[in-house]
Amino acid sequence: MATKSAVVTGASSGIGAATAGRLAAEGYHVFCAARRFERVRALAEEIGGTPVRCDVTDAASVEALRTAVGSRLDLLVNNAGLAVGSETVAESDPKHWRAMYEVNVIGLLNVTRALLPALIASGDAVIVNLGSTAGRIAYEGGAGYTAAKHGTQVVTETLRLELCGQPVRVTEIAPGMVRTEEFSLVRFGGDQEKADQVYAGVAEPLVAEDIADAIGWVVTRPSHVNVDELVIRPRAQAAQHKVHRVFD
Ligand code: 8X3
After folding, report:
1. Which family is it part of (predicted)?
2. Is the pLDDT of residue 1 over 70?
3. Ligand 1 atom 2: the closest Cα is on which residue?
């Protein structure tokens, strides 16, 4: 049987990099796509995949990804995403909101549109979109991000409806608190102290490998089993605002 192929966007770090590794372990040839080529080059070398320089918001860049992948693809993981800022609605910068919508929603559209023919051509494909618990609820200071991630959620649902009858499964993974090296750092403009506060006192936030593990499980179910959505939080986070923190 031919090796299955997968594309992971945002593969340069965090959940994307862990997922690329997990899928390679499951036997996929992984196209590791990200803006930071040096990082995906090193990762691809490590896991026997193919690095692709790709900015999901840029049409020419996504076209290059489509060309690299070719006419057949088994799995697309739309992981590229980000949060910027934590201001109230009254104080938010529209530039930040646009950037979040551009990557989390339009980027997902660009990549999905480009790769859908190859996914359908495989005869048995999966699309996994990385949403968030921020796509399930509102929280103060989160409106730009929650609006974008609600967008990710509803686009995923729409896609599943539109592809009904095609050989493509569509899943949304919605993680809660995941400690990665960059997510909160990017959100707070490089302020490490603020980024660390997000996880302060939480003994065991989720890590990227926990989410990669869930994705590995979803894509290895039999073809007739579509996992619509998975909401995954650490045990210490019962809800967005209900986090168990222990300080000495
Ligand atoms: C990340 C979850 O709590 O930072 O997607 O919004 S949260």
Report:
1. Belongs to the short-chain dehydrogenases/reductases (SDR) family.
2. no
3. 176
